[in-house]
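Run: sequence + zinc ion -> complex structure.
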Amino acid sequence: MSPVYGYYHLDSEAAAACPAGAEFEFTQLAVDLPLTRCPWCGGGVERGLAPASIRTHKFDCELKDLGFSKLRRVDDGLFENLTQRPGEARLIDRRDPTTFPKGKK
Ligand SMILES: [Zn+2]
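>> structure
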């Protein structure tokens, strides 16, 4: 199982505008380099100190209630929305903004 890391935006303006929300979880392989840019909005992001799944295990529905989006990369530029809300696409294509999760506004 791939570790899940919590990321947060460094820029509050980007955080407000980003389809993934101010904070998001990102599943990645241990060999992957930490993200420095948000895969959705391209804004600067920083990884939390520990994998989110170890720091605090939260159920997907709980994340959803908190306004988090949990996404898993399935292909280059293609993500699965694990906290899919009604009206949201299951698969997110970073080149297609209509598939972005809406998050909590
Ligand atoms: Zn972003």
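>> summary
The chain has a mean pLDDT of 78. The chain is about 15% helix and 30% strand.
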